Amino acid sequence: MTLDNLPGRPHVAYKDGELFAEQIPLRELARQYGTPLFVYSEAAVLGALAAYQRGLAGRSAKICYSVKANPALGVIRLLAAAGCDFDIVSGGELERVIAAGVETARIIFSGVGKTRAEICRALEVGIACFNVESESELDVLNALAIASGKSAPVSIRVNPNVDPKTHPYISTGLKSSKFGIAHERALEAYRRAASMSGLRVIGIDCHIGSQITQEAPYMDAMDRMLDLVESIEATGTKIEHIDLGGGLGIDYNGDQPPQADILWSKLLAKLDARGYGDRKIMIEPGRSLVGNAGLCITEVLYLKPGDQKNFCIVDAAMNDLPRPALYQAYHAIVPLRPRADAPTRWEIVGPVCESGDWIGHDRDLSVQSGDLLAVLSAGAYCMSMASNYNSRGRAAEVLVSGSNARLIRERETITDQLRAERLVLDGHP
Ligand code: LLP
Predict the structure, then answer these.
(1) Which residues in the chain show pLDDT less than 50?
(2) Disulfide: which of 55, 123, 248, 410 matches 288 by Cβ 3.0-4.6 Å?
(3) Which atom of ligand 1 is found nearest the CA of 205?
């Protein structure tokens, strides 16, 4: 990657030696809001969404943004206004989508461990579909629906046993994973679901993994799903929608995932060829909508050159950007204002007291303390997985549109962190 060319991030670019997000110099945002700071480009989010919309144009299709990738209310609202529905995995995400002003009929609920309280709330507000992941969940959902006098719309998440060829922690469609109902058991599960008076079977779903960079696993998953639709419908249960989950990868480090529109035109061609072109299509993309629309600005605190390694200590850490520590993930790191002098090889690390607290290994950069860096591809699974480890407050978030920047989340203060805690004193109840 060269400094004037940041592939895959069309709305982040250098102009006159300064890094911009859309029309805004990132240095300005750092000065105004402090660091570490997450910045998201609206145009980049909408551009990524448009690729899916083109691929699915003319079909009955729902793009259900997977909220876990980036649950900021500002992001949910942006995607809702652009026509997205939403895929949630917890009661917390349900309340976020509601708080963003989205109608509950635009929400589907995935997840292996929905609690009874979460199911009751989702029944109460009336969501579009429960993506059920086990036979015991079918029993519980049925009982709770009957008790509340409702009929729960259901899709069963099937585990198609397809290898998505990605990191083991984010492969979910293999037989060995905890997700979904095994392909071989699916028919029986549908038979049971169809016989339950509190349930209304409407669809089938799968999600085979995340950061998928090949087309073949999707084509295989679609074939396996259609085989099942055929056998389920032979038992008299109509499958109105087919939900192929999310998982499409992004370019972190020269990765070349299929483009959403091209992938979907191929998947739809398969659907048509097999005679299921009339079914409603649902998808649950997360990372591919927001991942490359975001970056994190961080300040270089100290430089610590050494015999074996040179450490560049920045003010963002594994609590803000957990993906390198968790998955050995690569995020490109670039200066906001490149220096002309020769680069040095650095370990880019945060202040957290763990050797696992690294952001980038072996990065060639010309830096001084006080410089600002941008950690790229940080729009997905960064703030959503951020923690308070080392009692660090979570970063602020800004949404940029053209030359307009809006704060969508304030920096977390120590008061925010201490709010729920009680100081228990000896001798006091
Ligand atoms: N649907 C379901 C049921 C999911 O479990 C997921 C992600 C998605 C959709 C969205 O997948 P996406 O389009 O974002 O790949 N923290 C990891 C990724 C975990 C993905 C979990 N499930 C990471 O940072 O790489």
Answers:
(1) 1-2
(2) 248
(3) 3
